[in-house]
Amino acid sequence: MVSEICKIMQNKELAAGIFEMILQSDKIAAAAMPGQFVHIKVKSSSFALLRRPISIHYADKAAGTFAIVYHVVGQGTEEMSRIESGECIDVMGPLGKGFPIFTDKKCAVVGGGIGTAPLLELAKNISDCDAYLGFRNCNYKTEAFEQSCRNVYVTTEDGSYGNIGYITEQLEKRITDYDVIYTCGPKVMMQCVMDICCKNNVECYVSIEERMGCGIGACLVCACKIKEVDGEWHYKKACKDGPVFNAKEVIFDV
Ligand SMILES: Cc1cc2nc3c(=O)[nH]c(=O)nc-3n(C[C@H](O)[C@H](O)[C@H](O)COP(=O)(O)OP(=O)(O)OC[C@H]3O[C@@H](n4cnc5c(N)ncnc54)[C@H](O)[C@@H]3O)c2cc1C
Ligand code: FES
Predict the structure, then answer these.
(1) Within 13 Å of residue 197, how many CA atoms lie on the same side as its CB?
(2) Cβ 49 under 6 angstroms from ligand 2
């Protein structure tokens, strides 16, 4: 996989520490599938030898652009937040296996916090989709889901927007409406979504986050435990075999 120098069209703060960056790349926009990620090299300082994996939020194939939404948690994402429109960054992608898309099933996406970001491109590609979006104390990009989904349910833990509480409580009330659930977010939330789906016999796909090195299956940094049919487990590479897996295969150490 060859990297590409992409021009930043916009890098805007959506909420405290949450940024949306729009990048120009005909190639990445054309190839992007929901659930895939890009691997970003942050400037050329020696600290940033390792790239940072960030999910594709949406791709605009006509405009030749794609967007990412990221949370500033450390040095790499902090540097990203200071990049200005017109500057360029080195991007590899799209990488990984994304979400399987079903055209004839009733689906819902369930995201928590920054885990809502990869679910927008998926929701745009499903004709019959509801969205469940959970946040702690702020909300962002909910209006974009409203444009693509039939129903959008939002919760915040402090009640500042939508219903107060956890988004899994909203999902549990309506789980029997769905054939397939897709989820991304904190491990505790995804484990709860998986348990609700398992109890109600609903198919579930999970996008997992592991620390990554190469992003292309060569270094084993992203090894994650995956269940076999006989109950045994083995390691798979989150970057190449995932980041999306069927919930039946996933083992979380929560
Ligand atoms: C497939 C994939 C998709 C991702 N998509 C997004 C996204 O759309 N938006 C977004 O904000 N973040 C996303 N992440 C997480 C993002 O890669 C990390 O937050 C980022 O690399 C941190 O870099 P940093 O230099 O700022 O922080 P660091 O200084 O490297 O780390 C700061 C903190 O972030 C945690 N962290 C570092 N790497 C990861 C990681 N891979 N996963 C989880 N936590 C990590 C560390 O444990 C530490 O607590 C994704 C991760 C993966 C694997
Ligand atoms: S990050 Fe190197 S094998 Fe996955």
Answers:
(1) 24
(2) no
Structure-block tokens of residue 29: 């926009």
Q: Of all protein residues, whose CA lies closest to atom 20 belonging to ligand 1? A: 52
Indicate which atom in ligand 1 lies nearest the CA of residue 80.
Answer: 26
pLDDT digits (tens, 9 = 90+) for 188-239: 999 999 999 999 999 999 999 999 999 999 999 999 999 887 778 899 999 9
SS3 47: helix
Question: Which ligand is located closest to the Cα atom of residue 240?
Answer: 2
- Torsion sign over Cα 141, 144, 146, 150: negative
CATH architecture of 4-95: Beta Barrel (2.40)
What does the angle CA 94 – CA 96 – CA 99 come to, to the nearest 5 degrees?
100
pTM of structure: 0.95
Residues 6+ apart with CB under 8 A from 164: 155, 156, 157, 158
Distance 107 CA to ligand 2 centre (A): 30
> What architecture is the 107-249 domain classified under in CATH?
3-Layer(aba) Sandwich (3.40)
CA–CA dist 228, 187 (Å, integer): 20
